[in-house]
Amino acid sequence: MKINTKDLTIKRAHEDLVSGKYTAVDLANAYLENIKNNDKEIHAYLEVFTDVLEQAMAADERIKNKKNVTLLTGVPISIKDNILIKGRIASAASKMLEGYHATYDATVIKKLREAGVVFLGRTNMDEFAMGGSTENSAFGTTKNPLDIMRVPGGSSGGATASIAANMALAALGSDTGGSIRQPASFCGLVGLKPTYGAVSRYGLMAMGSSFDQIGPITKNVDDAKIIFDCIVGQDKMDSTSIEQTQLKKIKTKFKIGIPKEVMKENGLSLEILNNFAQSVEKLKSLGYEVVEVSLPNLSYSLSVYYILVPAEVSSNMARFDGVRYGLHVDGENMVDDYFKTKEKGFGSEVKRRIILGTYILSSGYYDAYYNKANIVRDLIKEDYKKAFEKVDVIITPTTPGPAFKVGEKINDPLQLYLEDIFTVPANLAGVPAISVPAGYKEIDGVNLPLGLQFFASQGQEDILFKVAKDFESK
Amino acid sequence: MEIKDIEKLAKLARIELTDIEKQTYLKEIGSILAYVDQIKGVVAKVGEERKAGNLRNVMRGDEVTNISDSNKEDIVREFPKKEGNYLKVKKILDN
């Protein structure tokens, strides 16, 4: 039978699978067919797994026996290539790990596997998640399915493209400074960056360890919640993971704050401002009280982020030295092996951040940059804390504009960094944020999606789901 | 910053860079540093006092937790060079 994958959601697929309208094998076949037809052009996948149908058969078995059936049983999902699946290649789109096979399952994979998810394949990304366009992949750029001249965003650009081109029903990505929310916004999807520590990172390749989180990318808010509910929770294998403290009683009325500093951001086009104003009106018409809040140190976010992240990157990347796993290039002696291996294995953005991070952490500059950035990070956290005493949710645009063209920004790293202006604050403050579609900007006859971003205080994902769903359904 | 500074950093990070890479990074890192320099002003205003906040170390005992040998073979298989079950590296000290 023909399955309409375009309008399918996790919820609908679950109902159809349980009612026997089609099987998990039918569903998997529909997605494999779409991949066959579309992915040559889009290049969302680095690998499509050969055992997809076997996984689907196992899911059908569970559904048939009505045993261990969850909302995710039989649901075909794509996985970003920096999340480990035992026995599979996990390359982080880097030549460094081109032939590396993961030796264990990430905790999120274990949880999804237990829920009966069908893993379709591993998706393209910026190398080691460094970038915002997938142009930094060592294996070629992913194209935005809505306009193939444009990038899908990044670093989880393969993940979002896989959904936008109906080649997966949902995806897992990772977000260090916007890598889930920005590509979700560029592809007209929903993307959640959970609270720092809400989801275990055991089995996620570390980039900026005080920032990284795994999160869902989906077609709607309900689906994001379904995946989040499956992967959330403290894990003894990740010492930074925490138990979510739930509100005793979920309020029914939420107050929304607009940071006045955001609207003064330089270079924000009139169209983005108008689009944002429309979103505010929509929320008001839904009965929400909208007030102004102040985040005085917000304008330092990018500077803080691009000091702390390279510092953490330079430490985290040091493990890729060709000794225990991954690429090994022979040099004259053991130390020379390191030099040669890193030269061959890393692409230019990774090297740039390693060099910058090494500078920032070197004696003489450590105080000037790293320590000062940490002080300002605390100020930003403090700003959010104060703002959340006044309001339950804060909103901003997700990005300063819609998807840009392939090649447009890749030669100016600073310009590309400035794209992250609205997304990095959530990672600095460790708070959850969700991006939902909020209209379009028409360029060259194509409607390019824009995103609206909702922030809540730590552990308050449920508020985000509630408000974002209200916004989405109108 | 000069080319020799980039060379020094590359040496510290144990990465070989081509001459073109050195030139590009010199320029790009210069403009990134010029941008992030804005934080120095704000710290001058608030002072260098830093609170630890809610962050704390999470420790565990130094005990073997990985009791099963289930993925030993998988790990050994990923060694770039090996002899039997041993990871093989070049000699570290010259005679």
Task: Label this structure with key terms.
heterodimer; A: 474 residues; alpha/beta; eleven-stranded mixed β-sheet; 15 helices; 14% strand; globular; B: 95 residues; mainly alpha; 4 helices; 44% helix; flat
Task: Outline the fold blueprint.
The complex is a heterodimer of chains A (474) and B (95).
Chain A: H1 10-19, H2 24-42, E1 45-48, H3 52-64, E2 76-80, H4 107-115, E3 118-123, H5 157-164, E4 170-175, H6 181-186, E5 190-193, E6 213-218, H7 221-231, E7 255-259, H8 270-285, E8 289-293, H9 301-316, H10 334-345, H11 348-360, H12 366-390, E9 393-397, H13 413-418, H14 424-429, E10 433-443, E11 446-455, H15 461-472
Parallel strand pairs in A: 2-3, 2-4, 7-8, 7-9
Antiparallel strand pairs in A: 1-3, 4-6, 5-6, 5-10, 9-11, 10-11
Chain B: H1 3-12, H2 19-36, H3 39-46, H4 72-77, E1 82-83, E2 86-87
Antiparallel strand pairs in B: 1-2
Mean pLDDT rating of chain B: 86
Which stretches of chain A of 5+ consecutive residues score pLDDT under 50?
none
Q: Which assembly state applies to the chains in this document?
A: heterodimer
Helix content of chain B: 40-55%
Written as H for each helix and E for each strand, in order along the chain, the element string of chain B is: HHHHEE
Q: What is the helix tally of chain A? A: 15
Determine Rg of chain A (CA atoms, Å).
21 Å
Instruction: Tell me the number of strands of chain B.
Output: 2
**Largest beta-sheet characterization of chain A:** 11 strands, mixed
- Strand order, sheet with most strands of chain A: 1-3-2-4-6-5-10-11-9-7-8
Name the helicity range of chain A: 25-40%
Gyration radius over CA of chain B: 23 Å
- Helix vs. strand class of chain A: alpha/beta
What is the terminal separation of chain B in angstroms? 39 Å
Structure summary, number of beta strands of chain A:
11
* Neighbour order of strands in the largest sheet of chain B: 1-2
* Unreliable sequence segments of chain B: none
